[in-house]
Design brief:
With 104 residues, the chain is mainly alpha-helical. The protein is built from five helices and two strands. It binds a DNA duplex (13 and 13 nucleotides) through helix 2, helix 3, strand 2 and helix 4.
Length: 104
DNA sequence: TTTATGGCTGTCA
DNA sequence: ATGACAGCCATAA
């Protein structure tokens, strides 16, 4: 059994459409925990592999992928995003103007 | 209970 | 543009 906030966070992440990205802060806010972006990171970190959550669509406020314990994960994440049609610039950053998820 | 550590973020030098 | 700092607070030990 997981804590309610985690479920809340997972729910928000699941709403991110394909080909779009959201920041940790944004997810935190939508989940009802403004300013707690870090907790979002923890929630995603604790996420099991078989869980149906597109964790790769969540990136940091700079438009970059957040490095995790596993150094390979960044590489994987980037591959997943590109597979969804998201482009990276020379700095390996995502354009929020184009891909930022705008929930209504 | 106290400490240390984080897949973050905004501000300032 | 890059680096340092300070808040947010849940987990693990």
């Amino acid at each position: 059994m997981v804590s309610p906030r985690y479920n809340r966070i997972y729910g928000v992440v699941r709403r991110i459409p394909r080909g779009r990205v959201a920041t940790y802060g944004q997810v935190a806010e939508l989940a009802g925990f403004p300013g707690q972006a870090r907790q979002v990171g923890y929630a995603l970190r604790a996420l099991s592999d078989d869980a149906n959550v597109p964790w790769h669509r969540v990136i940091n406020a700079r438009g970059e992928l957040s490095p995790r314990a596993e150094s390979t994960s960044v590489h994987v994440q980037r591959a997943l995003l590109r597979a969804e049609g998201i482009r990276f610039d020379a700095e390996q950053r995502v354009s929020f103007v184009k891909y930022r998820w705008k929930p209504r």
